[in-house]
Automatic annotation (TrEMBL):
InterPro entries: GH, GH_1_N_CS, Glyco_hydro_1, Glyco_hydro_1_AS
Family according to the record: Belongs to the glycosyl hydrolase 1 family.
Lineage of producing organism: Bacteria, Bacillati, Bacillota, Erysipelotrichia, Erysipelotrichales
Protein name from the UniProt record: beta-glucosidase
Enzyme Commission number(s) from the entry: 3.2.1.21
Keyword tags: Glycosidase, Hydrolase
Length: 457
């Protein structure tokens, strides 16, 4: 078996900065955050200029892999698909640096920074964006194929589609079920097109999809709760994973939606492509599970905490399910349940259902931290990671084919809508003081884990 991959993850918009440098054009996040006057990633962690230092620290921290994304607006200049050679040169250098330090790159094509020139005509609602994504994917495979073995089409279709088109938290900030369905369909079709280009081009390596995985638990085992659990699973997981791995949208979900909405945008010939071009592996980002009960009353409410003040979040989908808080659990300042067992259960469930290799592509805890000290003593992060890595190992011992673990995040970076003070990094970045990097206690702890567990694996 290939080596187990241990590392950290980032995303282009959240860490690179250099938002308009060397021919990079505007992304939808640049436009949105500038227009709304919100804290943005113009500079972020300045990884664009400091990637060498960051990758060297990964190596010194015992890591053997780095998961990051490519910025579409840095690589493709316009709707005609013209290539920005400076963008290509940047990623070639970054990839060469990874190899120089013995770090295996794990590369995501799309981590939410859609070029604004596509958002201008509707973004993921414009079917033309699917072919444009396939073109972007081909440019990446052609240019970086000899430097990359592990490819991901999309990071978390569920999260950016639902937040963008249904909840309205992320650009384009809509609350529209019909449009959510169209965007979801287009993204899953574009993902299959990416796999098609990869396979037909005969590139080496593996291609998969990364999903924001929310394993579902019920408050009891009544039939009503089981129905609520299935609804929650369809909403949270199945439309991404069933479609990417099994090549089919969940039939009960489509039947249900077709009663109230127009599904004529689904095309038979595109379903054939989705069926044929399924992924080699899945990446699961795990932050928490969902504990659900049957819907009783009230309008749909999807409220996410972007302030770090406990108690603000709420998830209820009318006639589908309601999410509840386990009174025995601990929650972060941003209302995320800390529940490592959900990772073990979820990995076993996903492996049983899909039977493909799994990488845990993100796992971590966001906290406000004082980074002016010499070393952040993030014992809460150590305990969080320790419990989750143990859960992963248990699932592995019980037979699930788990091949990697990535901490979110490699170093502190910009958190969507939360700004820079919700920190996840193994390495502190002092945004107020020259972007100085300093490893946290968790960085050294992770190094020890990799050294010891690396031998067991
Ligand atoms: C995942 C995303 C990441 C990252 C992480 C933490 O959903 O893939 O990009 O941001 O969540 O989320 P947040 O920054 O909102 O706390």
């Amino acid at each position: 078996m290939d080596k187990f991959l241990w590392g950290g993850a980032t995303a282009s918009y959240q860490c690179e900065g250099a938002w308009d440098e060397d021919g990079k054009v505007e992304s939808m996040w640049d436009r949105y955050l500038h227009d709304e006057n919100l804290e943005n990633g113009d500079v972020a962690s300045d990884h664009y200029h400091r990637f060498e230092e960051d990758i060297r620290m990964m190596k010194e921290g015992g890591q053997n892999s780095y998961r990051f994304s490519l910025s579409w607006p840095r690589i493709i200049r316009n709707r005609e698909g013209d290539v920005n050679e400076k963008g290509i040169a940047f990623y070639k250098k970054l990839l060469a640096t990874c190899h120089e330090y013995g770090i295996e790159p794990f590369v995501t094509l799309y981590h939410w920074d859609l070029p604004q020139y596509w958002e201008d005509t509707g973004g993921w609602l414009d079917h033309g964006v699917c072919d444009a994504f396939a073109h972007f994917a081909k440019v990446c495979f052609d240019n970086f194929g000899d430097q990359v073995t592990y490819w991901t089409t999309f990071n978390e279709p569920k999260w950016f589609v639902v937040n963008g088109y249904f909840i309205g938290n992320y650009p384009p900030c809509l609350h529209d079920v019909q449009k959510t369905m169209i965007a979801a369909y287009n993204v899953m079709y574009a993902s299959a097109l990416g796999v098609k280009v990869f396979r037909e081009g005969g590139y080496k390596g593996e291609i998969g999809v990364v999903h924001s995985y929310t394993p579902i638990d019920g408050v009891d085992d009544t039939i009503e709760t089981q129905i609520a659990m299935r609804n929650a699973d369809n909403y949270s997981n199945n439309w991404v994973l069933d479609t990417a791995v099994l090549g089919e949208f969940p039939i009960d979900l489509i039947t249900r939606l077709s009663k109230d909405y127009d599904i004529s945008f689904i095309k038979a010939e595109e379903l054939r492509i989705i069926k044929k071009f399924t992924v080699d592996y899945i990446g699961l980002n795990y932050y928490a599970r969902a504990l659900v009960k049957p819907y009783t009353t009230g309008e749909t409410q999807l409220i996410f905490n972007h302030t770090g003040k406990k108690g603000e979040s709420k998830i209820l989908i009318k006639n589908w399910f309601e999410q509840v808080k386990d009174p025995n659990s601990e929650f972060t300042q941003w209302d995320t349940e800390i529940y490592p067992k959900g990772l073990q259960d979820g990995l076993l469930k996903a492996y049983k259902k899909y039977n493909v290799p799994i990488y845990v592509t993100e796992n971590g805890v966001g906290v406000r931290e004082d980074v002016s000290v010499d070393q952040v003593n993030d014992d809460y992060r150590i305990s969080f990671m320790n419990d989750h890595i143990n859960a992963l190992m248990n699932a592995r011992d019980m037979g699930a084919d788990i091949r990697g673990y990535y901490a979110w995040s490699s170093f502190d970076l910009y958190s969507w809508k939360n700004g820079h003070e919700k920190r996840y990094g193994l390495v502190a970045v002092d945004f107020k003081n020259g972007l100085v990097r300093k490893p946290k206690a968790s960085y050294y702890w992770f190094k020890d884990v990799i050294t010891s567990k690396g031998e067991i694996i």
